[in-house]
Design goal:
Keywords: Membrane, Transmembrane, Transmembrane helix. The chain is mostly helical. The protein has twelve helices and two strands; from the N terminus they run αααααααββααααα. α8 runs antiparallel to α9.
Length: 366
């Protein structure tokens, strides 16, 4: 605004024009500040969103790690129970060997052996074949005859009485093994969330039922056992042929060593599945000999071999799970070490001389 204009215009109008100019300038300044604040808010919102995404991702990773760790613990407990149940099954398979060897040493006909729970039949056969000792046969008291009869047979492993029947060592072993497999089925369903694990649960329930009728109703126990081994065989075949193929491992982000470990574990699991199939198919075939009443000493030896396949399978599963747990623990330790190293390096960078800002003094020096 030049001098001539100021001289020709009244002073109060000049003041008004100055105030208008100042107001316009202030409005521009306020507008620029609002724009700056909006940009800052946008940056803060974007930063907060990124932080939320990072935290959410960390939470998802932590949840996934926790679920994986829990599943591995359940798998370990399941495999330990499988080993225990298979070991009891092996011991169970040895139990009737003494009886068949004893009956063979006395040349007892198989039709007599097959009626071992019929005391009257045994008495008649012993009497007809002159197997009752003379001093026992001529004894005046029934106690002598009863004691000889009770001690002339192999020990059945009588443990305690229950009402009108009794419980034997064989029943306890059988029940305990079946209960282990029942728990294995429950835990497998928890880990895999797949219907095939329930097949083991049902198979184990038939095994439990079979163990309860071993003494009271042997025929019913054999039928329940046959149903049980058929279900176990179905599960073993499905596990080998179908289920393992569905368990594909995403190896895109894996290092070579980890990939090799997983591939070796998969091969070991396949080997365990093969032993499981052999053992269950062996039991399935042997169950038919029991159903038709032609189970003999050679079949008892075959039952031991089948039970041994179960035990080998369970040991392989336990070994694979143990390796998987150690690998998972090593990966978590590596991630923790990487995090600690990142935090340490970040703190050192934050306080390093290269990152400290310089301030220029009024005289131009820093």
């Amino acid at each position: 605004m030049n001098r001539d204009y100021e001289d020709s215009v009244p002073e109060d109008e000049i003041e008004v024009e100055k105030e208008i100019e100042i107001g316009i300038s202030d409005r521009y300044a306020v507008g620029e500040k609002i724009d700056d604040d909006a940009e800052d808010l946008e940056e803060d919102g974007s930063s907060a969103g990124e932080k939320y995404a990072e935290v959410s991702s960390d939470d998802d990773d932590a949840s996934s790690d926790y679920e994986e760790s829990s599943n591995l613990c359940v798998k370990l407990a399941s495999d330990l129970l499988f080993v225990l149940g298979s070991l009891l099954y092996v011991i169970l398979a040895f139990d009737p060997i003494d009886y068949y060897q004893w009956s063979g040493s006395l040349s007892i006909p198989q039709d007599v052996v097959d009626t071992k729970t019929d005391d009257a039949f045994w008495w008649a056969w012993y009497d007809e074949n002159g197997l009752i000792p003379e001093d026992v046969y001529n004894a005046d008291d029934d106690v002598t005859l009863y004691d000889w009869y009770e001690n002339s047979f192999p020990d059945e492993g009588h443990v305690f009485d229950v009402g009108n029947t009794y419980v034997t060592r064989y029943m306890i072993l059988y029940f305990s093994a079946a209960m282990c497999f029942f728990l294995v089925g429950i835990m497998s369903f928890w880990v895999w969330r797949h219907w095939f694990a329930l097949v083991m649960v049902v198979a184990a329930l038939f095994g439990i039922a079979s163990s309860l009728f071993v003494v009271e109703n042997e025929r019913l126990a054999i039928i329940f056992n046959s149903v049980s081994v058929h279900l176990f065989a179905f599960e073993a075949i499905y596990l080998l042929v179908f289920f393992r193929r569905q368990q594909q491992v995403d190896d895109d982000n894996m290092d070579l060593a980890t990939k090799h470990v997983i591939e070796d574990s998969q091969r070991a699991l396949m080997l365990g599945d093969i032993f499981f199939v052999i053992g269950t198919l062996g039991d399935l075939i042997l169950s038919y000999f029991s159903l038709v009443g032609t189970f003999r000493l050679p079949h008892a030896y075959a039952a031991i071999a089948a039970a041994a396949c179960w035990f080998i399978c369970s040991c392989v599963y336990l070994l694979v799970t143990s390796v998987e747990i150690m690998r998972s623990r090593a990966e978590r330790n590596d991630e923790y070490d990487d995090g600690q190293e990142y935090m340490t390096n970040g703190q050192q960078t934050a306080i390093s001389p290269d990152t400290v800002p310089t301030v220029e003094k009024e005289d131009g020096s820093e």
